[in-house]
Design goal:
Helix content: 40-55%
Structural class: alpha/beta
Strand order of the largest sheet: 1-2-3-4
Radius of gyration: 12 Å
Number of helices: 4
Amino acid sequence: KVVGEAGDGREAVRLAGELKPDVIVMDISMPELNGLVAAAKLKRIAPDIKILTLTRHTDKAYMRELLQAGVSGYVLKQSESTEMIRAIRTIADGESYLDPAI
């Protein structure tokens, strides 16, 4: 169930504090706060929250930085939509998920 939607990283952090979602699907490229900075802030205010990064970047350096910031999964925008659904379910169950294309 979708409980909220944010237009930028700052709003994502604010809404997460209010709505307390189980999983956040977040792009790396966002105005105000990029996905990396927003993910790090989210993990500080809500360490149990699961964050799935949705991106077009296949560069493993992005992935490593995000994983170090505390994201639970990494899915490519160019992958089939079933990958995102699989990733959401996987991280909601407490496991990590990396797009098979990476």
